[in-house]
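input
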Amino acid sequence: MLWFVPLLPLLAAPVIYGFGKCRLGDDRGRAALALAGVAIMVATLLLASGAVTADWGGTYRWSSRIVLSIGMTPASAVFAIIVPLIATPIIVYSAYHEASSVSTGGTARPPVGLVALLTAFVGAMELLVLAEDFVTLLIAWELVGACSWALIAHEWQKTGNLRDAAWAFLVTRFGDLGLYIAAAAVFAGTGSFAFADLAQLDGWLLDVFVAGAVLAAAAKSAQVPFSPWLFAAMSGPTPVSALLHAATMVAAGIYLVIRLHAELSAVAWFGPLAITLGLATALAGGVVACLQGHAKKLLAASTSAQYGLMWLAAGAGFPGVALVHFVTHAFTKAALFLAAGIAERHVGSYSLNAMRLGRLLPGVAAAAMVASLALAGVVPLSAAWSKEKIITAAGHQASWLAVIAAVAGGLSALYATRFQLLAFGRGRHDRMSEAVSRPGHSRAEAVAFYLLAAGTLALSLLWWPGVGNGLADLLSVHFPKTKLWELIVSLLLVALGVGLGIWAVRREVSSQQSETRTAMADWLGLPALSARGANAVMMFSYGLARFDDRAVDAGIRGSARFGAWLARLGERRGEGVFDGATSQLAKGVDWAGQVARRAHTGQMHHYYTGIAAGLAAILIILSIGALL
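output
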């Protein structure tokens, strides 16, 4: 029965696409498309919720050694519910998102392909989080990667979109190799692909398994040095960015860490490595977001930084804290991406310096402020609670780790403030006039955004006394107890970040940026460094190719020339020589035949005479041998 959770959206996606292409072609078609997508998501959500309470499972025997299996754990249950819950308003938004981009006469067709792909994306992610063995996990992992490539390249007509989709796909594919290595190590050590048999793994195979899993998870969750692929993913439509960053593609990496935390932490070096990766990414992503002038790229850098904090919590030994931060971050980040899409509809650009739509869109600005303050870690909003738990978890390892984590939280406050004030602050009247002259957002897009902002606000109940402890018991996890000094330091750094964000916005009077700041905003120059490395590798490859052409292939080309010379020589002189030799051989054979025929006279006494002569010759030879 549990198989219906991932199969329902996966099978519904081609049905939506086929029916939508034939029947849906106007604004009423958008409503039908949105309704169909919502129905699939709600059904998936209900199935997942029922699976949690009914303890469903599922297996499929592929062969005697390979069994596909899915099941529910506390972590997979949370992800299985959150994914369709976040996807529901995003699909509503996507059904209407492309309508307002048409400023000329006529009505654009509903984005049937986009909604179908988003639906399939949800199904692939559901299969991933329910997987109980590495074969099922790898199948889902590949489906998620393929769907993400198709979604990023959805608007393939735009220049560079296909290149960006390929770049994001190749970077994450490199990390995917780690998952194959991990699966091979598990099978070599246990004879099975099942998660339940991981306890049997030990020795160097356990180290190989952990290394492969960390590589795959780090690439998917955009940890340093894989973080820049998130900027390439921004070529996709706004709803794609919202779902990809909030609950699907990027979330797959941290899910793997949370789901297999007990096995990963069996290796002593996993904790320090996860903490290092998480802190480095949280700080680097925070700095990049503080410098970014592109709304979606600012939020993308923020996503990388927030998942870095989740890695920090997991490395510190508190995967439950990372799980709760995933939930609070999912609602917050999805809402902010939809807000950025609404703003772009009014100004025709994702440039933050071109927005400042607070006067034009007061309702959207107010809802966006809720999500921005939550991202900033302002008490008593939802993400602030999980962020404080992450700082406390870091403090369980060392006090200085808690301070650095609090600094990362301060950076979150800085870039969240920048985003809010630049996107939805109060700008000059001429900018508002320009925005009014452009097609705006639809009511459905606004409702979808408001629902996610309301979810962010509702999760603020985590601050209510007893709710956190009840949640810990429900999820069978342990939350660290917050220390007063850590809370004070964190809140002070959040206040400092908000203040610096206000100061930075007042200084940003122009969209022009220095080359240094542009390079820093592009992941601290990491893509340029990667490009130099790739160019160096290509130059080395070209050098090897030239050496191969000039040295290795020289003998082959010489042999070819010698063979061609022999062929020409044979053509000029060889024909006569070979034909003459053949003729002489034929004459010799003919002469031998004639001689042989002379012995065949047909008279018996001739044959007897020959036999007698032969016997005599044999006796003479034998006699000579005896005498000697």
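quick obs: The first strand starts at residue 58 and ends at 61.
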